[in-house]
Structure formats: C-alpha cells, structure tokens
C-alpha cells in the first residue's frame, strides 16, 4: 500500500468536525448510511473487502431513550467506555437484546460486572485483570470475546500494553480458558498529524501479523479507528471501527473523562 505524504497537516487546516445530534430513527439511518458509505470507500481505496470491517457504534453518554431509537434504526451492538454506565444500560434495555461491548479501561475489582453482562471486552491490559475476569466467567459459566489493548501512540498515560510487551502477554492468555482472544485494540495518537496517526496503525498491524505467525491471536482482528480517524484506520488494516459522535452526535463530556491524557496530547 502506498503511504501518504509524511507532511503533517497543520492543526488549523482541519477544524473539529461538527457532529449533529441524531434524534429520530431517520437521523440514525442517515448517519449510519453515511458512515457505512465512508467505510466502503476507504475499504475500496485500500483494496479490501468491506464485509470484513465491523462498525461498532459507541453509545457512551447517550441516554437510554435515544438508544431505543438507535436500536429501532438497526443498531444492535453498542460500545461503552465505563462499566457502570454500560451495566445500567444493559439492565434498563434488557428487553431489546443489545450486544454490549466494553471498550474502556477496567479496574480489576469491576471484573465481576463485566463478566455478568458484557458480550465483549476490548481493553484487556493486564494478566491480573485476565485472571479476575476468567475466575468470574468460570463461576458464571460464560466466556467472553476479548481484545488486548495496546498503547500504540507512546502517549504516557494512555492505557494499554507497550508494543514490546504484547507477544509475551498473548502467549500467557491461554491459561485463562474462558477468554476468547479475538485481536488487538488501540486508540491512535490524538493529533491532527496524519503521519503520526498512521504510524500507530502500522505498529498495530505489525504486532498482529507477528502474533498470527506465533498462533497466539485467534482471528487476529484489529479494533482501531474512531469518528475522527476511522478511514485511515481502515486503510491501515482495521477490522472494527468504534464510532460514537459521527453516529450519535457530539458529546458534551470531554474526552479527558475517558482517556485522561487527551487534553494535553496535541
Ligand atoms: C468514545 C470512544 C470511541 C468513539 O469516539 P468518537 O469520537 O465518539 O467516535 C472509541 N473508542 C473508545 C475506547 C472510546 O472510549
């Protein structure tokens, strides 16, 4: 694949996109269709089959009433960063049968919550947590799809394993038999420097390819790309884009609430 020019766009050249809030079923259908079209176009540019790219709508901060509308528009899986919020929504919307994906850092003492309701956990980043999850899952007679989170940007307080630690970590996971390892997850650098963002995706793909060689990563899926960078992520090999604001609308809660460093990362 040809690499884009290494010249960074200046931050001023790309004003923050404005995301309009989806309220009606039609709003959601329109936003979904627009995102899916952009996914298709990015896959086409990269010479990839668009069918292998999953769109995971990220519903954090969106109230339950609007999630019912989103569901009516065809959104049946939802990603949430915080486990308490996710669990509350899963209970109050239990009649819908939504598939819940927890995509944010988890403290070990919350493992039992995730084991109780989540269909997927994308932010596995320590063996202590793997152990705690496995114990709770065994007790519940469940298993869980997991992605290992990697800090691909080198930003100091981003969650996730250092790239150098990924191979040994993956090799240790078969000990936790209720965890089904599906792939790797990352948040790329929070910056308008397109070359830096693409370098994060490149690191992830290299780690994934090495793990496929080693046979430690199941299907070798790659969860990367958000509202601001999902097209570059697809060109970089993503098989799961996690898109919140471009579907639901702008969030009032600053991103620093979810990844504390982003406010300083520019
Ligand atoms: C919020 C969040 C996203 C989606 O971000 P948007 O800017 O709303 O697309 C993706 N991944 C994680 C881990 C998140 O917390």
TrEMBL record:
Coiled coil: none annotated. SUPFAM superfamilies: PLP-binding barrel (SSF51419). CDD domains: PLPDE_III_YBL036c_like. Pfam families: Ala_racemase_N (PF01168). Residues 1-20 are annotated as: Disordered. InterPro entries: Ala_racemase_N, PLP-binding_barrel, PyrdxlP_homeostasis. The modification N6-(pyridoxal phosphate)lysine is found at residue 60. The keyword Lipid metabolism does not apply. Residues 31-251 form the Alanine racemase N-terminal domain. Keywords: Pyridoxal phosphate. Pyridoxal 5'-phosphate (PLP)-binding protein, which is involved in PLP homeostasis. Belongs to the pyridoxal phosphate-binding protein YggS/PROSC family. PANTHER family: PROLINE SYNTHETASE CO-TRANSCRIBED BACTERIAL HOMOLOG PROTEIN, PYRIDOXAL PHOSPHATE HOMEOSTASIS PROTEIN. This is Pyridoxal phosphate homeostasis protein. It comes from Actinomyces naeslundii. The lineage of its organism: Bacteria, Bacillati, Actinomycetota, Actinomycetes, Actinomycetales.
